[in-house]
Each structure stands twice: as structure tokens, then as C-alpha cells.
Amino acid sequence: MSEHPLTQSLSRINQVEEYFKARLGVPDDGDWLEPTTLFAHSSGRLNEWRRETAKLLRTKSRNMIGSSILQCYHWPVIVAPIGCFLVDRRVPCLSPDNLQVRLGEEGEVEEVAFVTGRFMALPNDPAADHPDATVLHNVDTLRDYLRTSLETHLGWVIKQLGAEIGSKPHSLWLDVADRCAATLIWLMQEVDADVTVDEIEREIEALIRVPVSPLNHKKIGFFTLTYGEQTHTYVDRASCCYWYRYEEAEGDCCTTCPRRPKQERDQILLKYLAEGE
To answer: Smallest Cα–Cα separation from 46: which of 30, 33, 29, 57?
Structure first.
């Protein structure tokens, strides 16, 4: 029996990023939860997550706690569909009832599982005639489906965090938009070493810069740095991951934190480029 097309696409993303873990089918191992259970009203796991996050960040801020929980949740949920779109022009079904997530020891989502193999594809996809495939007309329509799927799934999570924790949606959408832009920029360069800045910009414009989309934030951009013959593109972040609030951080920010002066940020990134030669 041949491998499912969605499994093939997820495997290709894993070849690009070893820490990305996703599978197809209902898992029967480990601590797996449906998002609808994890973020349900009075969810015991969500309440525990809230207390742990408040302790780690040393804060009572509802926005900060909700933002941190969202960031712990959304990385693989965003990487999976954007990655499938980039490597194979496929987009899996992101309905909350079609996903299960496995939580790590520190509360972050370590792996996602798609309960069914439903996916969107293009007419020229070799798997277009697969029973789980729905064929869309062109890449623009497929990209629109990708965006609305992300908006719908993460919009639902944001609504739940607002109801259960009291977090305000604006800052949470900023987190999501930052991650979508960063994932797109990062994966485009990982998938194609020869991708140009213009190509990255066009894809950002098409996916993120849509006037009616909650992902469309003017604060989020990108910048490039060059060392020798290396030119690399990075997201110009607008949201914070709050690493500086963790005790082990000793007040230091992560490399691309918007709290860090841009000149200092660029110097650190240029150092990384130099070390990668």
C-alpha cells in the first residue's frame, strides 16, 4: 500500500526541520489531547497550564499568560500547513476536531496528528485523484484556503483563551501573525537555497498582507543581512516570547526580540552568519 500523500508532505517538512513532528491518524501512544478538549471551558489541563505559565513568567498578566500559552501551542500547528503548501502545494484540514496534539514535559506542543487525511491540492498534483483530496483551481485559491484555515483554527483558540483566561485578542493575533510570517520566511529559505528576497516578499504579501485578514499587521515586516556571499532574510518581529522573564534568562532577551535594539540584534545575527560559513 502506497504512503498517503499527506504523510509524504509531512515527512518532507521533517527532512527540513528535524524538530518538527507530525503524523497522520489517531495516535495510541503518549499524552494526546484534542484541541477542543484542551481549550474547553474549565479544562483541567488548561487551568494547570495557566498556573504553570504564571509561575514561570512571574506574572499575573492575563495577556502575557494567554500569549505564552498560545505560542506554546501554535508552532507545529502553523508549520504543518505552511510547510505542506511550500513543499507540495497541499494544505491539510485544520479543523480543531481533525487535530490532536501531544504535550511535552514543559507544556509545549511537541507533535500534531491529523485524524483524517483530508487535504486540498492543485489539479497538477500527482495525488489530485486521491480519495482524500479536494482539488482547487489554482495556487492563489489554495493559498487563500491556507490563510482562512489558519485564521479559523487559531481564531477559535484565541476566542477560547479570551473566555477562559481573559486575554485580549489583539496581542494574540500579533503572536500568530508573527509566527506565520517567520515560518514562511524560514521555510522558504530552507526549502530553496536560491529563493530571492523578492520571492519571499511576494509570498508574504499574498499570505499575510490581505486587508481583511487578522494576520495583516503593519508592525510585522522583514529584513535581510549579508555576510560575505551569504544573504539571509529574517522576520522583523512585533511580538515578544517573554523569554526574558524566565529565571534562567537572567533578564536577557532572545536574538530577534523587539525589545532588543536593532543594531544589537543585527550584530548577533551577523555573528551567526559568520559562524555558519
So the answer is: 33
499568560: which residue's cell? 65
Sign of the CA dihedral 24, 29, 34, 39? Answer: negative
Please report, as a single letter, which amino acid is at residue 139.
Answer: V
DSSP states along the chain: -PPPHHHHHHHHHHHH-TT--EEES---SSSEE-HHHHTSTT-HHHHHHHHHHHHHHT---HHHHHHHHHHHHHHHHHHHHHHHHHHHS-EE---GGGEEEEE-TTS-EEEEEESS--EEE-TT-TTTTSTTEEE-SSHHHHHHHHHHHHHHHHHHHHHHHHHHT---HHHHHHHHHHHHHHHHHHHHHHH-TT--HHHHHHHHHHHT--TT-TT--TT-EEEEEEETTEEEEEEE--S---GGGSGGGTTPPPTT-TTS-HHHHHHHHHHHHHHT-
In degrees rounded to 5, what are phi and psi of residue 206? -75, -35
Residue with the three cell numbers 532577551: 253
Look at strands 109-114 and 221-227 and give their pairing.
Answer: unpaired
What's the pLDDT tens digit per position in 213-247? 999 988 888 999 999 888 999 999 999 988 889 88
For 9-55, what is each residue's pLDDT tens digit? Answer: 999 999 999 889 999 998 887 778 999 999 987 778 888 999 999 99
Nearest to 29 by CA among 113, 97, 117, 118: 113
pTM greater than 0.70: yes
**Is 181 buried (19+), middle (13-18) or exposed (0-12) by CB count in 10 A?**
buried
Amino acid at 159: K
| Alpha carbon distance 132, 216 (integer Å) | 31
